[in-house]
Every structure is written in C-alpha cells, then in structure tokens.
Amino acid sequence: FASETPPETSGSAEEPQTSAAGDGGSQQPVSGEAKKSLKKKKNVKISMEAMIRGFQKFTEEDAEEEEEVPIGSQNVSAWHNVPHPEERLRFWSDPDTELNLAKNTGISVFRMGVDWSRIMPKEPTGALNEAVNFAALERYKWIIHRVRSYGMKVMLTLFHHSLPPWAG
C-alpha cells in the first residue's frame, strides 16, 4: 500500500528530524549532505538463473560510472512514505476484503483482535453498562459470524497491547 512520495522539507539540514522508531522502523534520518550525495550503482547480471530471479551484482568498476539519483526517489523511507490509515485499516467497515484474501490463500484459522477503545470508550465510573459500547460488541459478533461463514475458525486475541486512553 505504500506509494512513493517525496519527503517534506521543513527547515534546514541541521534541524533535528524525528526518527521512525515509533512505528518499529530503525532507519535514521538522512542528513542534508548525505541526501545530495546519494548515488545509484549500475548493475550487471551474473547468470541466467540470477536474471530470472532478479539477482544483480555490483562491481567496483561500476563505481566510476555512477549516476545521480534524485532526492525523494528512494522506494522506502519510513518517515515520509507511510501508507495512510484510511487506505489500509478498513477491516472494521469492510471485513469481506480481508476475509476473501484469507480464504483464497487457504487460511483455516483467522486471527483477529479486540480494540478495547471501541468496546469501552469511557472509563466505567458508575454502572458497567454505562461504559460499554454495545453496538461495537454487536459488530464484533457480526464479524465473527462472517469469518465462520467463510469456513474459517476464529482465533480471538483479547489483549494485544490495546487499551483505551483512560486505562493507560
């Protein structure tokens, strides 16, 4: 789902940039001077099998024939090439897309989690009934029935580091 977009430039090269550690990435930001000197080496195919599989070999002689790579043409840069949540998190509103993919790949057990922020969006201060979102529970029940209608069993993850803000 990632699409190539150029990085946003917001200030000088000396300005600290945020890292991608929050989303599990470990890439460090590229400094201004390093961005200017990004170069791409030309490739040499090494054998017919390698050509079929897409393997490429880079040689030292190719270093002399380097070509410039425009800034922003890197395929994956976690800090500026993040897919939009509205494009990838549609399971709640349209589970059939994911369920079709799972069934077509031969999956027999479908793992799904519970978002406690949906079930209990407000802190229970009085009666528990007042804090529970029963519409969300009904939606989860409907989704579980959909999973079963595709011929799969449900593995329900009750806690996967998801707590409502009031519980954290």
Automatic annotation (TrEMBL):
Origin: domain of life: Eukaryota
InterPro entries: GH, Glyco_hydro_1
Residue segments, region Disordered: 1-42, 61-80
Residue stretches spanning the membrane: none
Gene Ontology MF terms: beta-glucosidase activity
SUPFAM superfamilies for this protein: (Trans)glycosidases
Biological-process GO terms, alphabetical: carbohydrate metabolic process
Polar residues bias (residue ranges): 1-30
Record-linked Pfam families: Glyco_hydro_1
This protein's UniProt keywords: Glycosidase, Hydrolase
Family label: Belongs to the glycosyl hydrolase 1 family.
PANTHER family: GALACTOLIPID GALACTOSYLTRANSFERASE SFR2, CHLOROPLASTIC, GLYCOSYL HYDROLASE
The protein, known as: Beta-glucosidase
Biological source species: Silene latifolia (White campion)
Organism ancestry: Eukaryota, Viridiplantae, Streptophyta, Embryophyta, Tracheophyta
